């Protein structure tokens, strides 16, 4: 049951493209218990949600 990314054609593993969603794959599949940097996690979330941290507490001007 192998699947391939529609964007780059790379293999999808555990629901993540190891290329387009490399950070997400590492952060959520390979090493979910690891303590990644904020920047890394931001990127990982962006890859799974398709958007940057839209909801942020205490955001500046809406
Ligand atoms: Zn891809």
Structural class: alpha+beta
- Number of separate helices: 2
Roughly how much helix do the residues carry, as a percent range?
A: 25-40%
- In whole angstroms, the N-to-C terminal distance is 44 Å
**Major β-sheet annotation:** 3 strands, antiparallel
* Strands, count: 3
Features:
62 residues, alpha+beta, 3 strands, 11% strand, binds zinc ion
What does this structure look like?
- The protein is an alpha+beta fold and 62 residues long.
- 34% of the residues lie in helices and 11% in strands.
- A hairpin with a 6-residue loop joins β1 and β2 (11-13).
- The longest helix is centred in the last third of the chain and has 12 residues, at 38-49.
- The chain is globular.
- The termini are far apart.
- The mean pLDDT is 87.
- Residues 5, 7-8, 10, 17, 19-20 line the site of zinc ion (ZN).
What's the helix and strand layout?
Blueprint lengths: L2 E2 L6 E3 L2 E2 L4 H9 L7 H12 L13
Helix pairs in contact: 1-2
Bound molecules: zinc ion (ZN).
The site of zinc ion has 7 residues, from loops.
């Amino acid at each position: 049951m192998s699947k391939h990314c529609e964007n780059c054609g790379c293999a999808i593993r555990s629901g993540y493209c190891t290329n387009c969603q490399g950070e997400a794959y590492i952060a959520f599949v390979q090493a979910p218990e690891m303590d990644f940097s904020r920047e890394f996690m931001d990127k990982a979330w962006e890859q799974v949600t398709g958007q940057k941290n839209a909801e942020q507490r205490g955001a500046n001007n809406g």
